[in-house]
Design goal:
The complex is a heterodimer of chains A (about 325) and B (about 425). Chain A has about 325 residues and is mainly beta. In chain A, about 0% of the residues lie in helices and about 50% in strands. Chain B is globular, with a radius of gyration of 23 Å. The chains are: A mainly beta (about 325), B alpha/beta (about 425). Chain B: InterPro entries: ABC_transptr_sub-bd_PQQ, BCAA_transport, Leu-bd, Peripla_BP_I.
Chain lengths: ~325, ~425
């Protein structure tokens, strides 16, 4: 496959940052090779930026200065300057990067390489691969514990969550979950890892001490077939009280009480909802709705959808700038 | 065959999930292009031997592009073995595929007995209906599970269904229903049907007639295309076909779509663009229903397509997917039951907990009444996927996938 990651970069010279209090949401649009920048206060699209081919996983440096974007079909991770919205660099990612997670110290990216059954560990500053860790078939979900000591990868055909020691880069535990595990999210206290299973239709809550599944959360929406409920993105509030789970073609985001594991609400958003991101003030959570080409702003206090905003084609991932 | 899973692991077994603690580096089984981790032989490998019994003879096709690959099906089975072994490396399980070929009209009983003697408890079969039935009772009496990855015959899931046979390849009625739903969704309701003179052509024609009745299509005219034994390819063949096909289709009544039932590759490829009236063609030519499409990339399909192409140097076709699915089902059963006990694995496959993910957008399960794997049907031309069925709006009280093929209330299957 050709590497032409930077060739498509467009200089976003006219871009101006919004008011200081506003956050920017950055949405990767898988189908049209763009990233949409949305002001979360006004809920207006500020800019659409051309990026590499098939942009999917997206995250941002802790200082908010750089966006990291998986350009899957270019086999690279693009580094985008948030001030200029220019692609300023690429990182070696291994083939077909889909999803990644940034270490809590902001220095390391852990990348799932779907095609090669590998997790690649990348030193961002040195732009070098520190390790390649063989995992199960079709690695996808990536999570890291708040203390940075444990990284978890899910493999979609092996159906396991692989717990990896970040100091040795070795797998310490393999936890079997349901079919096509897509995403890992640690609770803020680091005690649990929540793993969604898209085809299995469940979220497994894994105890990070015993590495056992302590709870399996299932979903039921009146009038919807069980097969259409396909959990993907998971986000947990900073106070650890609520979990949000994107349910794919069920077109809903489930709101779960983390104490009781009960689903307290299903928020209707757009079609095929996959990924989620909070604003740093935790007042809003944003969903990417692939098939309806939009994102939905959900009020975290009321769990009501506030507004949907049209972005690019097949929005995949979303990240919001830190304060 | 005994399970080599350490007894301590049993403590972690729970109903839906289990945890396996594997300290240190893991032995990665030979997966192409993957750096091998340092192998620590700290646990004994449990071997799961799968047989692959195949009727094979070189086949001709009207287009050289349609000649089946030499390793059709087997290649899919091998990719699934590699997948299972990657997973198995975390669990101390090793899978192997033992392929035996026989002639399409051969007696398969000796080959099947050989497979049993060699310790294969599971056999993926790409055989004719007659050959499958000849080994079904032998399989039952020896506790062998057969996975049919080749025969689309409805009667193997109906009058002639057997408890020892699971079917991962869809039936002709599932394929025809998948196509018919799309034509109805398009509101192209008036069909004419040209069918070949061989048994399998007529079986597919019958499936299309049934689909018309079921979904509200109307077959306004039919015509038999007799196989007079002509060579499939000659240097000046195109000249004649260009003149013959319009004449052959001239007397058909007014229609929206021309359906072709020619599994035998006698005339179907020659129908599109050569008809008397300009109408789309569907069936075994034109818009074709299938279990898989070489260009399908939806639902994570890119991943299996890339993996398959890298391993085999060609694109993945339906039979490859049916064999991949069969071998993956056994891998899933071994993972979930934590061992290789054929009884436990069979119980799991038969249980309500069983499902398999096969890049088709939803979990696939077996129809309990005839052991056919429920699955969406791809509709495509030679280059791309046009749609997948079931189509929106075709509802069902159990699973929309059961709008495809013969449903439980209609089944004549009594598993034995």
């Amino acid at each position: 496959m050709q590497r032409r990651a930077c060739a498509l970069a467009i200089v976003a010279s006219g871009f101006m940052a919004g008011p200081a209090s506003a956050y920017m949401a950055y949405v990767s649009n898988e189908k049209d090779n763009t990233m949409t920048v949305v002001d979360t206060a006004t809920m207006q699209v500020m800019k659409t930026v051309n990026v590499g081919q098939r942009p999917r996983g997206i995250t941002i440096s802790h200082d908010g200065k750089q966006i990291y974007l998986c350009a899957s079909d270019d086999d690279s991770i693009e580094v985008i300057d948030t001030a200029t919205l220019e692609i300023v660099d690429t990182l070696p990612s291994g083939p077909d990067p889909e999803l990644f997670v940034l270490s809590p110290d902001g220095k390391t990216l852990y990348v799932a390489n779907e095609d090669d059954n590998l997790v690649t560990v990348i030193d961002i500053e040195g732009k070098k691969v520190l390790a390649e860790i063989p995992v199960g078939v079709e690695p996808e979900g990536m999570g890291v514990s708040p203390d940075g000591k444990t990284m978890v990868n899910t493999s979609e055909t092996t159906n396991m969550a692989h717990f990896i020691d970040t100091s040795t880069h070795e797998i310490t535990d393999n936890v079997l979950v349901d079919a096509r595990p897509r995403f890992v999210e640690f609770t803020p206290d680091g005690k649990q890892a929540w793993v969604s299973a898209e085809i299995g239709g469940t979220v497994s809550v894994i105890d990070n001490q015993t590495r056992e599944v302590v709870q399996k959360i299932t979903f039921e929406v009146a009038g919807l077939r069980a097969e259409s409920i396909q959990p993907v993105g998971v986000r947990i509030t900073a106070d650890g009280k609520k979990a949000y789970v994107a349910l794919g073609p069920a077109n809903r985001v489930a709101v779960i009480n983390t104490q009781t594991y009960e689903v307290e609400k299903y928020v209707l958003v757009g079609q095929r909802v996959w990924q989620l991101a909070f604003t740093p003030d935790q007042k809003t959570i944003i969903s990417t709705n692939g098939v309806s080409n939009d994102i939905t702003f959900i009020d975290v206090a009321t769990d009501e959808p506030v507004q949907s905003v049209t972005v690019g084609a097949l929005p995949w991932g979303v990240v919001v700038s830190p304060k | 065959m005994t399970s080599a899973v350490p007894g301590t692991l049993a403590a972690f077994l729970c109903f839906f999930s289990l945890t396996v603690n594997v300290p240190g580096a893991l032995a990665q089984e030979a997966t192409a292009g993957q750096p091998a981790a340092a192998a620590k032989p700290e646990k004994k490998l449990t071997e799961i031997k799968i047989g692959y019994l195949r009727a094979y003879a070189p086949q001709l096709a009207l287009s050289v592009l349609d000649i089946p690959p030499r390793d059709e099906g087997v290649a899919g089975g091998n990719v699934a073995i590699a997948d299972n072994n990657t997973t198995g490396s975390f669990l101390g399980q090793k899978f192997s595929l033992d392929v035996t070929e026989v002639k399409p009209d051969a007696d398969v009983v000796p080959a099947f007995k050989d497979m049993i003697a060699k310790g294969n408890r599971y056999v993926v079969a790409d055989l004719s209906a007659r050959q499958l039935l000849s080994i079904a009772d032998l399989a039952r009496d020896n506790g062998i599970l057969i996975f049919n990855a080749g025969a689309t015959d409805d009667n193997l899931r109906e009058e002639e269904c057997r408890a020892s046979i699971y079917h991962t390849i869809p039936t002709r009625s599932m394929l025809a229903d998948g196509l018919a739903q799309y034509l109805i969704w398009k509101q192209w309701r008036r069909w004419v049907l040209i069918y070949g003179s061989h048994e399998r052509d007529q079986l597919f024609a019958e499936a299309l007639r049934r689909a018309a009745t079921r979904f509200g299509g109307e077959i306004v005219g039919e015509k038999l295309f007799e196989d007079t034994g002509t060579a499939r390819r000659t240097d000046s063949g195109v000249v004649q076909i260009q003149r013959q096909m319009p004449v052959f289709t001239q007397d058909l009544p007014e229609h929206d779509v021309l359906l072709v039932a020619d599994e035998s590759e006698v005339f179907g490829t020659y129908v599109p663009f050569r008809t008397w009236t300009p109408r789309p063609v569907a069936g075994t030519a034109g818009l074709t229903p299938s279990a898989w499409h070489p260009a399908g990339e939806q639902w994570g399909g890119t991943q299996i397509q890339n993996r398959f192409a890298k391993a085999n140097g060609r694109r993945m076709v339906s039979k490859d997917m049916a064999a991949w699915t069969a071998v993956r089902i056994l891998g899933e059963a071994a993972t979930r039951t934590q061992g290789a006990d054929p009884g436990k694995m069979a119980d799991f496959i038969r249980s309500d907990d069983f499902s398999i993910a096969a890049f088709k957008g939803q979990k696939l399960t077996f129809r309990k009444w005839n052991q056919q794997l429920r699955q969406p049907i791809f509709l495509g031309d030679t280059r791309s996927v046009v749609s997948t069925s079931p189509q929106e709006g075709f509802l069902h009280q159990v699973s929309e996938l059961d709008t495809l093929g013969i449903d439980e209330p209609e089944t004549r299957c009594v598993l034995k």
